[in-house]
């Protein structure tokens, strides 16, 4: 287990950029999966999912998803329930060095499920990816159209997570029904919550 008192940042394994499943096969097999086993995820799998969501691809800045004006308004949080080598709790993905910042310890699957209108797969998942936005990063450049651009971007992230999960043999589903304020209070964040994506073994 990772010690929350001694390790505030957890370095993730390097992501694999040469997968064994074609893009076409992943798209063909992609489904919304709401039932998961009790088996934990591995750190390699967490690494791939984080990289797919917001990883750096080249030049130290560009990412795995397009962003209007390269304003990058999204932040990724992870509620860990069962991951080998990670203490249950809330983490924040830091893409610049591909690491997880430990936010707080605890088993929050049940609370997150309640905040998601009682959707059971949120509690039963090995981990839940929470995609959040800082609209001001984009609105400073694009004004009133920023919200539209941010929502396009979160769709790109969601699809990347779906496809990466399929390649890894994992299941996920995009959850949009939740109490914004309850999720923000649970994660102790100010960002706006846009998506929750539970991930687990099929």
Helix and strand pattern: EHHEEEEEHHEHHEHE
What structural category characterises the helix and strand content? Answer: alpha+beta
Largest sheet: 7 strands, antiparallel
Silhouette: globular
As residue ranges, the low-confidence spans are 1-6
**Helix content estimate:** 25-40%
CATH overall fold name: NADH Oxidase
CATH homology group:
NADH Oxidase
| Rg for CA atoms | 16 Å
What can you tell me about this protein's structure?
The protein has one domain: NADH Oxidase (3-Layer(aba) Sandwich), CATH 3.40.109.10. The chain is built from seven helices and nine strands; from the N terminus they run E-H-H-E-E-E-E-E-H-H-E-H-H-E-H-E. Helix 5 crosses helix 6. By secondary structure, it is an alpha+beta fold. Strand 2 and strand 3 form a beta hairpin. The relative contact order is 0.22. The strands form two sheets. Strands 1-6-5-4-7-9-8 form a seven-stranded antiparallel sheet. Strands 2-3 form a two-stranded antiparallel ribbon. The N terminus is likely disordered. The protein is globular and about 45 Å long.
Summarize the structure.
The chain is of the alpha+beta class and 202 residues long. Helix content is 34%, strand content 24%. It has a single domain (9-201), classed as 3-Layer(aba) Sandwich (NADH Oxidase), CATH 3.40.109.
Topology of this protein?
Blueprint: E1 9-11, H1 23-29, H2 43-54, E2 56-58, E3 62-63, E4 74-80, E5 89-94, E6 99-105, H3 109-115, H4 120-124, E7 127-133, H5 136-142, H6 146-167, E8 170-172, H7 180-187, E9 192-201
Antiparallel strand pairs: 1-6, 2-3, 4-5, 4-7, 5-6, 7-9, 8-9
Helix pairs in contact: 1-6, 2-6, 5-6
């Amino acid at each position: 287990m990772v010690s929350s008192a001694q390790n505030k940042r957890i370095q993730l394994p390097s992501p694999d950029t040469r997968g064994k499943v074609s893009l076409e096969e992943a798209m063909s097999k992609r489904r919304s999966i709401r039932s998961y086993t009790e088996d934990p995820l591995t750190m390699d799998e967490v690494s791939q999912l984080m990289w797919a969501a917001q990883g750096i691809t080249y030049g130290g800045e560009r990412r795995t998803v397009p962003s209007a004006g390269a304003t990058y308004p999204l932040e990724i949080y992870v509620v860990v329930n069962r991951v080998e080598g990670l203490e249950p709790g809330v983490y924040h993905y830091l893409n610049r060095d591909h690491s997880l910042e430990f936010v707080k310890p605890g088993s929050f699957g049940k609370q997150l499920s309640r905040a998601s209108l009682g959707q059971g797969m949120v509690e039963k998942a090995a981990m839940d990816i929470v995609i959040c936005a800082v609209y001001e990063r984009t609105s400073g450049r694009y004004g009133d159209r920023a919200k539209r651009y941010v929502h396009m971007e979160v769709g790109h992230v969601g699809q990347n997570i779906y496809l990466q999960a399929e390649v890894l043999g994992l299941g996920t589903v995009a959850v949009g029904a939740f109490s914004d304020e309850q999720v923000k209070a649970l994660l102790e964040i100010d960002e706006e919550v846009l998506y929750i994506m539970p991930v687990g073994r099929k």
